[in-house]
Amino acid sequence: MEQRAAIALTVNGEPREFRGRADTPLLWVLRDAFGLKGTKYGCGAGACGSCVEAAGKDVLTIEALAREPRQPLIQAWMAEQVPQCGYCQPAQLLTASWLLKRHPQPSDAQIDAAMSYVLCRCGSYQRIRRAIHRAAAWPADAPLQSTEALAALPAAAGAGGGVMLNPWLRINRDRSLTVMVDRSEMGQGVITGLAMLVAEEMEIALDRIRVEFAPAAPEYVNALLGEQATGGSTSIRAAWDSLRAAAAAARERLIAAAAERWDVRRSECVAEGGEVVHHCSGRRAPYAALASAAAAGRARRAKPKARKFRLIGRPVPRIEVPDLALGRAVFALDVTRPSPLDAVLARCPSFGGRAERFDASRALRVPGVVEVLEVDGAVAVVAEGVPAALAGRDALEVSWDLSGACRLDSDAIRSRLEAALERRGARARSSGNVERALRSAKRVVEAQYETPYLAHATMEPMDCIAEVTDEACDIWAGTQSQQDAQARAMEITGLPRERVRVHTTYSGGGFGRRLETDYVTEAVRLAKILRRAVRVLWTRADDLRHDFYRPASLTAFRAALGARGGVSAWLQRIAGPELALGEVDIPYAIPNLRLVRIKEDPGVPTGYWRSVGASQNGFTIECFVDELACAAGKDPLAFRLGLLAHEPRHRAVLELAAERAGWPDKLAKGRGRGIAVYRSYGSWVAQVAEVSVGEGGAWRVERVVCAADCGTVVNPDAVCAQMEGAVVFGLSAALHGEITLRDGAVVQSGFEDYPILRMRDTPEIEVHLVPSHAHPGGVGEPGVPPVAPAVANALFAATGRRVRRLPLLRS
Asked: What's the pTM?
C-alpha cells in the first residue's frame, strides 16, 4: 500500500510542501516537484535520502548559493577555472560551503576529509583545493563581483534575433556574435576553444561571443571523423583551418558591405572590436548594422591569420564556466517537456541475452507506473516520475533467453587471449629480420602484459528525452554523435532527415561512451509507441553493467639487446578485440622490428574509451622499455633518449618532464620515480611519476609531472586542465579500474566496487607545455597513455617489483 504524506520542509530559505509518496528520494523532490535542477543524479547510491528525513529541516541547493549577494566561493571557483564537464560542481560547491562554515581557514587535510565524499570524474580536484584556499583567504572587506554579474548566460543567443552569415556565425542585433558549436561539450572546453578561433578572425572581444549547439546537419561534419561527432581529440584540430576560414570569410563580407555603403576602397577598411572602421574618414559601423548587406553579398574567400594572434595562445577564462559553476548549464536530464514520462529498462545481465517472457502485474500495481513493454530484448517500465519507474522495475519478474548470450567469466576470457597469442596473427609493422636478430642475440628479454576491461563511468549516467509525432521527432541528449543519433531515429520513426531534430545539451562527461546511441534509440522507440515525451534514465548499475567497454588485451614481447646496450630486435604480439589493437606508437630506433595483431573477441561489447588502444599500448610499451633499460644497466631516461635521436618531439617532452621533476636528484628511501612517453592523436606527452612506499608495503602516488607538445595551443589553461584531468582519469584506471565478468555478466555495480580517484588520493600534478607553431594536436586524450606506465615504472624503482598487470593495486 502506498504511503502518501504532506511533508513540510524549508528549501533555500523558503517554506515548501511536498505531497506524494513518503519514500520519495529528496533528489527527485528537489528536481521534479520544486524544479531545482542544479541537484544532479550521479552515483544513485542512496539518491540523497528520502523526503521524510528532510521534513522540518533546512535544505540548501546550488540555486540559493548562486543567489547570495556576496559569495567568494563561487568567485574563487571561477578564478581557478575549476569546472570541466561541470556535472559534479553543484555538489562540490555546496560541500565546500559547508566546509568553510565549519573551518573558515581549512587545512589540506580538512579539505581532503570533507571533499573526498564528492566524486569528480573529470579530475578537477587540484583546482577545487586551490579555489577553497582562495575563498578562505578572501579578506572580508575586499571587493567582490556580485553573483548576479557573474551569472550572465554565455550560452544564450543575442537578444532580438540576428542574421546568419554562414552555418556557423550569426550577427545579433545586440552587437553580439553567436557561434554555432558543432561539437559536444563534455568538459574539454570546446565551446571556448571554438569561440576563440572565431573571435580571433572576426576581430571581436570574447565577451561579445554567444554560443549555441548546432543541430545535426551535413554542414557540421567533422572532417577528421567523416561524420558530425566529437571524438579522437579532433574538435580543435578539425576546426583550425575550416572554422577560422569561415570566420575570416564572414569578416571580409562585412568589410566589403561597409566599403560599398561608404563608397570607399575595400583596402581602406579594417575590422576592429566588432566594427568595420574607415580610418581615413573616421566612419564606423557595428557588424549588426552591416549584417543584412553582408549576408546578401557574394561569398568571399579569405585566408585566416598566419600568426600575431590577439587571443589564440593566451589563457582566457572559459565562457561556459559561469553557467557550470552556478548550476545553470542544461544537461539532458534537466530538459523540461510538457507531461513527460520517465522510463527505466531491465536488461539481460548476460551480454546477448533477451527477455523471453515477463510478468508485469506487480509492476503495474506500483502507483505511478503507466506501462510495461518490451523494447529490443529489454523490458521498459514507464511511469510518472523516476522513483515510480525504479520501484516498478524492482517489482518485475523477467525470464531471460540466454541461448545467444555470452557466458564467459574473466578467467575464461583470459584463457582465450592466452591461446590467441599462440596464433599467427597479422603483421601491422615489419622491418629487418627479427627472427635472425633474436637468435643471434646474447641477451633476450621477454615479458607479457595484461590490461582489463574498463567502463567509462561518466559522472552523468546515460539519459535522453525524446518526443515523436507523425510530423517530427525531437531528441535532447548529451550525445557525442549527432548524426548517428539522427540516423537511428530516422530508422525507428520513418521520418526524413529534416524532421528529426537533435538538440545537443551539455554532457556530464563522455570519454567516448556517448558516441554510442543505445540510450537514444531506447527513448525514441518508447516515445514513438507512447506518443508522449519519454525520458530514459540509466542508473549507475545500468551504466556499469551495460557499457561498451575498453577491451581487455594481452601483449607478449621479445627483444634483443645489442652489445652496447641498444635494442637490436623487437617482437610485439597483441591479442584482443579490434579496438585494443590500434594506436601503437613505437618511436624507438630499432633495426629489426615486428608488430603482430591477433584479433580475439570474446563477445563483450567494446567501444571507444578515452585514448582507446593508446591507453593499453602506452602501458605495455613504456613498461617494457623500462625493463630493457634495467636489463641493459642504463638509466631509463638516458636509455630512451639514446633510441630517439630522430624523434625530436618525443625527446623534447621527455627532457622537459625530467627537468621539471628533478630527474637526476636522489630521492629519499622508499621513494621512486618512473618515466614514460607516448604520442597519440597528434600530440606528444611525457610524464614522470613519483611514488612513496610505507611500512607494510602500502604505497601511493605523490607527484606527477606532465610535459605536453600539442602543437599550437589555443587556450593554455584549458589544455593544462585537460592534462590534469587526464592524469586523474588515468590514475583511476591504473590503480583501481577493472571490470570483471561472471557467467557473461558484469560484477561491478557502483563506485564502491568500481572506485575512481578521490581528492584525498590525488597527487600533486604539474603540467608544462612545449612552445610550438605546429598544427594543433589533440588534448583530451593524449594525457592518459603515459600515466599507468610512469606509475608502474616508479613502483619498480621504489620496490624492485615489476607489475605487468593492471590495475596496479590489485596485482
From this structure: 0.96
